Amino acid sequence: MTSGPADHSSVRIAVVSSDPAFRRLISDQLSVHLDRECDFQIYDGEVPSAFLMEPACALVTFEMEEELSHLSRLASRHPNMILLAFSENSSVSRAVAAMQAGAHDFIARPVSAEALGKRLSELLSQHRPAPSQDMKSIPSSAPAVTQSDDNNSDEQDALKDFEGFIGQSPAMQGIYDQILRVASSKAPVFVTGESGTGKEVCAQALHARSNRADGPFIAINCSAIPADLMESEIFGHIQGAFTGATQDRKGAAELADGGTLFLDEVGEMPLDLQAKLLRLIQTGALRRVGGAQEIPLDVRFVAATNREPMEEVRVGRFREDLFYRLHVLPIHLPPLRERRGDIMPLANSFLKQYAREENKQFCLFSTEAEQMLTAYRWPGNVRQLQNTIRRLAVMYDGTVVEDEHFPELLRKDESFEQELNDAICGLRQMGHAMADAILPFWQQEKQIIEGALQAFDGNISRAAAALEISPSTIYRKRMSWAQKEAV
Ligand SMILES: Nc1ncnc2c1ncn2[C@@H]1O[C@H](COP(=O)(O)OP(=O)(O)OP(=O)(O)O)[C@@H](O)[C@H]1O
């Protein structure tokens, strides 16, 4: 055994490898790439029966199948030690085997000192707990957010990147930043984005980060409630207000008093109710259906739509005054295809969740499956990805998710092709229409000159002066048009 400089404040790292090149990489090059002082204890291949002082982390190379037992032994003897396995065999099955033996991470060799230093610093700062026996972690190619091994849903939540959101793409970082900036205001927030992009998650995050987080969060989906029930659902009613109103009842707005009211698909609300909502936002008070009493409320409004709100205003489905009342703080959630870097973190997290729920062993995706997931267009966004992973966790068994586990993605993306074909046809037709609409030069010239003559009541001199041509040109042109038209 060799050891680095002994320093009581430094982190102890055991290195177990029979490969001199690997040992040299650690002893000569690694420390400059680590974000803390480390004391390396280097063991020459033989796994020690006991460490003098238990290291925080062990780096173990293994090339033979039999060496897996070394890993398992270390993992079971030192459950609090971070265990990293290295192999020159970078196959998925080798990675899975290492994880199942209890490694927290698997790194294919050769690895640069820089990459190893970065990964090790990350792991040490996470100071992660020991892997559980039934669900092992996934390799280092996957993002850190999916790499904890706990089975506890509270810890799961802590692993989300931001208030229920997963995704570290620059676009999502921008969204988290926006949420943090506007959360404490009482001004309404208007969230737009395609279906399944996380508008409700966003509304919840706004609530959770506001100073009304201890108050209620009430969500109401305006497209899911029949129009005749919507008024009472939102504004409540008093006994006898209509047939079936057997007692006084609070609506969603009153239930949200002191908290946040999330109005999903707000544009689907009938226009008369939009007027009533506008009044509530303006006055901060409502009257229940059939009631005479004004009830003051303290509600923060978050509205959302997956349509283009200005277009809805233009066609008269969405009141313009309500739109501007709600559209104080806009947040737009980008579709998943515009933030492909988030696909695998989301997929890994869903896989972990549904494998656990369905009591399955799935713990990682094959390279082909990963390529397929990241290349797909996800028209249904995160919700579609979530459903896809849930389906495979129910339907299949195994440890590694393969591309054939996604038959629906393997099929051609027909709706996309259809859309693309339609768009191309549309463009062609537009091109034809535009080509058809192009008039011969002399006719366009005639239109311009005649337009000028009209503007000056037929006065040729003034029209010619405005066009900066001579009057004789106009006479000449007129004669030539007459000849052309006579043909
Ligand atoms: N970034 C994310 N991280 C984790 N889960 C997400 C994320 N975005 C969406 N989801 C999940 O995807 C599903 C759909 O999200 P949500 O209901 O918020 O979408 P939406 O935009 O409101 O959809 P719709 O317009 O159809 O109502 C939910 O189960 C949600 O938890």
From TrEMBL:
Record protein name field: Two-component system, repressor protein LuxO
Species this protein is from: Cohaesibacter gelatinilyticus
Domain Sigma-54 factor interaction: from-to ranges: 165-394
Annotated region described as Disordered, given as residue ranges: 126-156
Gene Ontology biological-process annotations: phosphorelay signal transduction system; regulation of DNA-templated transcription
Keywords on record: Activator, ATP-binding, DNA-binding, Nucleotide-binding, Transcription, Transcription regulation, Two-component regulatory system
Coiled coil, from the record: none
GO terms, molecular function: ATP binding; sequence-specific DNA binding
